[in-house]
Amino acid sequence: MTERLDDWSGLHADEALLRYAPEAVRGLESLVALAPSLVGGDLTELVRTVCADTLGLDALPSPRGRQQRDTSGAVDELLTEFAGQFTVDVSVIDDAARRDVVAAFGTDLGAVMAMIYVADWTPRTRRALDRLFGAPVDGWPVPDRWDDSAVDAWDRVDAFMRSVARLREVDPVTTELVRLREARQHNCRICKSLRSRSALTAGVDESTFDEIDHYEDSTLDPRQRAALALADAMIWQPGHIDDAVFDDVRAHFSPAEAVELVLDLMRNASSKIAVATGADQANVAEGVEIYDVRSDGTVEFGLSAPVG
Description:
InterPro entries: AhpD-like (IPR029032). It comes from Gordonia neofelifaecis NRRL B-59395. This is Carboxymuconolactone decarboxylase-like domain-containing protein. The chain is mainly alpha-helical. It folds into two domains: 13-163, no CATH class; 169-303, AhpD-like, CATH 1.20.1290.10. It contains 15 helices and five strands. It has helices at residues 13-20, 22-32, 44-55, 74-89, 95-105, 109-133, 153-165, 172-186, 189-193, 197-201, 206-210, 222-236, 243-252, 255-268, 271-277; strands spanning 37-38, 41-42, 194-196, 289-293, 299-303. It has a three-stranded mixed sheet. The chain has a two-stranded antiparallel sheet with strand order 1-2. α8 (172-186) packs parallel to α12 (222-236). The longest helix is centred in the middle third of the chain and has 25 residues, at 109-133.
């Protein structure tokens, strides 16, 4: 832990991000600047408005002066419905909706999913950090350059996720509990089937993981319950989170840990892309698969369980 739990004064949200997660800041900024031109026009504003309106949060900025789509078209109506459902509850997207989106966007599907993910979870992340630290004095920055390429959209998401995975302030057990809670809320099959070797090495087992589903009245410690409450709030009601949720985070986590916790939730939420596209099938037919995160932020699957 890099700082005392009570050392929360003096930093606004943007400053806290830059101090405690500078690599992730660069990755997040690159995602905000992602505005690929798809199907003959710019859908950035449409997607960002739909997701923000659904959440009751401020929309991310969009490029001006670019070719805009006529949002009355069938493709745009399809994308509006899909992005809205992705934001509300990705687990209910069905095969018919997937087929329609694939047919509409074809090889641009990856870029479309990256756009929706960024529009869905960046406002949640910013709002949580605003509530924990105070909003940036001059507001969150607007990109001075926009990237209209659809080719490297997923590469940008992947780079951001690896930068977050390299953070190591939060203990592995809390990190894994939060990841599993989010996986179960989004009903991501592969995520639910995974178990962190680092968390298992720290002494937890399935009896601990079973308590995630009723954490409010569980034997999990107050720190873990505070993290899980923040996860639930950011997933289901990011625009209406009770002050007590943030008070509990400040009481049990240092500022550096809190930044990591919020960013972890955004990183975990990338599983919504797999769920939305039906690509979330588990690698094991039964039981669990052991994984771990390497020091460079990449993930290694198919490990053996720790002994003892």
